[in-house]
Specification:
This protein is α/β, with parallel strands linked by helices and 767 residues long. It has 27 helices and 23 strands. The termini are far apart. One of its GO terms (molecular function) is 5-methyltetrahydropteroyltriglutamate-homocysteine S-methyltransferase activity.
Length: 767
């Protein structure tokens, strides 16, 4: 029989119960025992939903209090020394306190302890905590969380399939610390501990374990391919079947290595790489199970059940019971349940499937492949067919005026009038900024009062006039606080914005919005991505009134704040009937109109955030240039319609810039602000080695940590930056926006930042 299974389920809960519980624990409002009980209840509910959907195996181990990669680090005892007191060095158990210290950092009597570095999980908007390896790294089983959860599921009578990041991907995703060494030298000992862990899993009566090796869809050096052969030959077990899970792309030149590894099963992603099905089936060993990921784990659209049934039936005839059906990847990246949504038009609702519905699609497809022709199965396929036909012909999708504007694009609208080195002098004269100008990335704390006002307005409990008055009051307070801090370039604080993408999407045609379509971005941070339903255009100005009001309150320059076209695309659920490039061009044109209106309103500093530009990069280098060409073009279409005296900023966070530094330079933003504090300014190496020509604001403190940075901490980071970047091109700012912080820590951190900037101005100008 064809098996229905999932690679993972969203951990946050239908109503973000995990987020709320974890944050309550951090605030001291929940005890550890209460938090553990909340987590257990969520896991059991999620397993039950998946079993009820008809899955033959439910994933166990996809739950994490903060991040699944951090879970693996704690399981394997990969704890950076800065988190371990002498008494803990020989400890064999990682407790929840240590776990959260690694995730968030902390301050003690000895000073600040930085959290583990965070970066994007492949080309998704999920962030993982980067493992840190030393040359003498040791591994030992230091957490029983996975084993405890397996027992928990077994006690409920569920057929569990443990899920664990595989050893090669875990090594690849980590960083060498202390010295530059080959991480593969750690593989032998690492595999030994994986072997111990798998033996413990087998002893619990488990039949199948899923080892995720997504790096098999990347360009891998031969040494890493050989590492796979070495590792998996050692991990063979007579009592435990390994399903090797790959996703986010095609195996391509890693196919031969992957297909011949001594694992009992292989999962491939046919949503991102449908073309690989034939080559994999043709070369699949006769003993091996093939799991096909045909339900999109990263989008919200209904699966074409009829199309996949037709394509998989020949595979079923060839493989028989060795064919499994699942999602393309973990459903971590999908909202939980579309049945919660009350605001969708009924025709649109029929086009959508969230995680709960996707599991049902998987089960229905497996039953159909097994020959089940019941009325229930036939009805599911008929419903799928009708939904696809209705969507294809819907007037909600296409707008001829937008399509005509796309056709009229030429190169002239994507070029500034003067080169950077000429226009930056004009901008400096106009803005009259000091050496090492200080600013922030855009948002200020989203206080309880701000959220309450927005909630009341959306619920119809307050008038629009009252809401606008309250938002203006909040903006005025943000301006007043910034002037008191003596920042040089101010922001309006974004009090009126719920999310940096959703806020804009709500004002653009072509978008659809959910009420509860939350997905995890990192830790307890959840986002509710808009859904790109059809062609996109701006109906009217989106930010001008708020920014004009804020500028009226201060003589200092104020930044207009926009989210860039690539980020809006990457952080939305995209259409599947047009290319990403087409949707991005539509967004660029809409934002171009907004940029020009801001300039007309007297705003001469405009920030167009593009934190997702690295995230959107294809995983295979052969596909990079095509993507970068249109991504850069879209940014320039959005930003280049202004005068030379208007300064364009952009912001990027948690990205490895080295590989795309030329493309970043091609954006031709006057100022770029980037995350650098968690990496101790290492990211600036890319900007130095390439001789990046424009202004740079390296983040001098980590806003994702509750730590308030000391002046000494900020000063040493800024001095490192000054050794790499010319002083006249250096800006001073935090790593990212401050919406998740509170005002007390925000003001203290910014006060320290401004103080250091002023001290360094005097120091450097005196030399």
């Amino acid at each position: 029989m064809t098996i229905a299974h999932s690679l993972g389920f969203p951990r946050i809960g239908k109503r973000r119960e995990l987020k709320k519980a974890v944050e309550a624990f951090w605030r001291g409002e929940l005890t550890q025992e209460q938090l553990l009980a909340e987590g257990k209840a969520l896991r059991q509910q999620h397993w039950q939903w998946q079993a009820e959907a008809g899955l033959d195996y439910v994933p166990v181990g996809d739950f994490a209090w903060y991040d699944q990669v951090l879970n693996v680090s704690c399981t394997l005892g990969v704890i950076p020394s800065r988190f371990l007191a002498d008494a803990q060095q020989t400890s064999t158990t990682v407790d929840l306190d240590l776990y959260f210290k690694m995730a968030r950092g902390y301050t003690d009597d000895q000073g600040e302890v930085a959290a583990c570095e965070m970066t994007k999980w492949f080309d998704t908007n999920y962030h993982y905590l980067v493992p840190e390896f030393t040359e003498n790294q040791s591994f030992k089983i230091s957490s029983n969380q996975l084993l405890d959860e397996i027992e928990e599921a077994s006690q409920l009578g569920l057929k569990a399939k443990p899920v664990l990041l595989g050893p090669l991907s875990y090594l690849w995703l980590g960083k060498a610390k202390g010295s530059d060494f080959d991480k593969l030298t750690l593989l032998d000992e690492l595999v030994s501990v994986y072997g111990e862990l798998l033996a413990k899993i087998a002893a619990l009566g488990i039949e199948w374990v899923q080892l995720d090796e997504p790096i098999l869809t990347l360009d891998l050096p031969n040494s890493w391919r050989q590492g796979f052969e070495t590792a998996y030959n050692r991990l063979q077990s007579s009592s435990l079947n390994i399903l090797l899970a790959t996703y986010f792309g095609a195996l391509a030149d890693n196919l031969a290595t992957t297909i011949n590894l001594p694992t009992e099963g292989l999962h491939i992603d046919l949503v991102r790489a449908p073309e690989q099905l034939t080559s994999v089936v043709d070369r699949l060993p006769a003993y091996k199970v093939l799991s096909v990921g045909v339900v999109n784990g990263r989008n919200v659209w209904r699966t074409d059940l009829n199309g996949w049934l037709d394509r998989l039936q020949p595979v079923k005839q060839k493989l028989g019971e060795r064919l499994w059906v699942g999602p393309s990847c973990s459903l971590l990246h999908s909202p939980v349940d579309v049945d919660q949504e009350q605001g969708f038009a009924e025709d649109v609702r029929q086009w959508l499937a969230f995680a709960v519905q996707k599991n049902k699609e998987i089960a229905v497809l497996a039953k159909a492949l097994n020959g089940n022709e019941s009325a229930e199965i036939n009805a599911a396929f008929e419903k799928s067919s009708l939904a696809f036909k209705a969507k294809h012909s819907s007037s909600r999708i296409h707008d001829q005026t937008v399509q005509a504007r796309i056709q009229a694009i030429d190169d002239t609208i994507a070029t500034r009038q003067l080169p950077y080195h000429e226009r930056i002098e004009l901008q400096r004269q106009q803005l009259k900024l000091p050496l090492l100008p200080t600013t922030t990335i855009g948002s200020f704390p989203q206080t309880t009062a701000i959220r309450a006002a927005r909630k009341a307005f959306k619920a119809g409990k307050t008038t629009e006039a009252d809401y606008r008055t309250e938002m203006q009051r909040q903006i005025a307070e943000a301006i007043s606080r910034q002037e008191a801090l003596d920042l040089d370039v101010l922001v309006h604080g974004e009090a009126e914005r719920n999310d940096m993408v959703e806020y804009f999407g709500e004002q653009l045609s072509g978008f659809l919005f959910s009420q509860h379509g939350w997905v995890q971005s990192y830790g307890s941070r959840c986002v509710k991505p808009p859904i790109i339903l059809g062609d996109i255009k701006r109906e009217q100005p989106m930010t001008v009134e708020w920014i004009r009001y804020a500028q009226s309150l201060t003589e200092k320059p104020l930044k207009g704040m926009l989210t860039g076209p690539v980020t809006m695309l990457c952080w939305s659920f995209p259409r599947e009937d047009v290319s990403r490039e087409v949707s991005c061009l539509q967004l660029a044109l809409a934002l171009r109109d907004e940029v020009q209106d801001l300039e007309k309103a007297g705003i001469h500093v405009i920030q167009i955030d593009e934190p997702a530009i690295r995230e959107g990069l294809p995983l295979r280098k052969a596909e990079w240039q095509q993507y970068l060409d249109w991504a850069v073009r879209c940014f320039k279409i959005a930003s280049c319609g202004v005068e030379n005296t208007t300064q364009i900023h952009t912001h990027m966070c948690y990205s490895e810039f080295n590989d795309i530094i030329e493309a970043i330079a091609a954006l031709d933003a006057d100022v770029i602000t980037i995350e650098t504090s968690r990496s101790d300014m290492e990211l600036l190496d890319a900007f130095e080695d390439f001789a990046y020509p424009n202004d740079i604001g390296p983040g001098v403190y980590d806003i994702h940590s509750p730590n308030v940075p000391s002046p000494a901490w900020i000063k040493q980071l800024l001095k490192k930056a000054a050794n790499k970047i010319a002083l006249k091109r250096l800006w001073v700012n935090p790593d990212c926006g401050l919406k998740t912080r509170d005002w007390a820590e925000t003001e203290q951190a910014l006060a320290n930042m401004v103080t250091v900037a002023k001290e360094l101005r005097e120091e450097y100008q005196a030399v």
